[in-house]
Design goal:
The strands form two sheets. Strands 6-7-8-3-9-10 form a six-stranded mixed sheet, sandwiched between helices. A four-stranded antiparallel sheet has the order 2-1-4-5, with helices on one face. By secondary structure, it is of the alpha/beta class. The chain has one domain: Rossmann fold (3-Layer(aba) Sandwich), CATH 3.40.50.300. The chain is globular. The chain starts with a strand and ends with a helix.
């Protein structure tokens, strides 16, 4: 498979404080990949750099072979990168339906695009809530809306940052089921989450960050077989 996202020698800083140090990372088309590591290790900064939200100090980011590290965030979004952000950021003054259709597009020119009907089939708990406002939803319902909203853009690359953070166990199961469906459909996806055991059953490839550097990369079988990686980089 060809590379959809290529991150090469990425360096990012906030003022004089450098956060990422020569990060190299590739996500191939159709792959479900993870970005793992303890809190504060650079995962969200890597995502923000890809999205054009945090300026890149050095290095290259390519989407479908085109350099995007100097592009504005709205241009990158229109090229087909969608994010389910940490904190969900659902529009409180819009209904569930309005949140879902507000940015609807077919950015990867799919012959079977995500539509409102398909999103509701994937996330049936939203059906009875379609006319409720964003501020009337539970945290789990807001997360489902955020996922559905991102899918409605039909992105080349879908990024979920802390997709199950703070959710009740039953809602987390709904999110895992949703991710399994996306993987089966070949949606290129990057997931950041702390539930590594569940991610090993879903994702194709894992990349671990420690203090802004890639310290481990490999498939689920290799991660299961590497207890030192768990102890050094993923333990609480």
């Amino acid at each position: 498979m060809s590379a959809l996202l290529e991150v090469e020698d990425l360096q990012t800083a906030y003022g004089s404080s450098q956060v990422l140090f020569d990060v190299n990372w590739t996500v191939t088309a159709g792959q479900m990949a993870t970005l793992l590591g303890r809190n504060g290790m650079g995962k969200t900064t890597t995502v923000r750099s890809i999205l054009g939200l945090t300026p890149v100090k050095a290095g290259r980011i390519r989407l479908l072979g085109e350099s995007i590290e100097a592009l504005a965030a709205d241009r990158i979004a229109r090229m087909g990168v969608a994010v389910v952000p940490e904190g969900r950021q659902v529009f409180a003054n819009l209904s569930v339906r309005e949140n879902l259709v507000a940015f609807a597009a077919n950015r990867r020119a799919s012959s079977e695009p995500w539509t409102l009907a398909r999103v509701l089939d994937l996330l049936p708990a939203l059906v009875p809530r379609l006319h409720h406002m964003g501020n009337q939803l539970s945290g789990g319902e807001q997360q489902m809306v955020a996922i559905g909203r991102a899918l409605m853009t039909n992105p080349h690359l879908l990024i979920l940052d802390e997709a199950t953070e703070g959710l009740a166990p039953l809602i987390r199961e709904d999110i895992w089921r949703c991710l399994a469906t996306l993987r089966a459909e070949g949606q290129t996806t990057v997931v950041i989450d702390k539930y590594v055991q569940r991610l090993m059953n879903l994702a194709d490839h894992h990349t671990v960050l420690e203090r802004g550097q890639v310290v481990w990369s490999g498939h689920s079988s290799a991660l299961r077989a590497d207890p030192e990686c768990w102890q050094r980089y993923l333990g609480v």
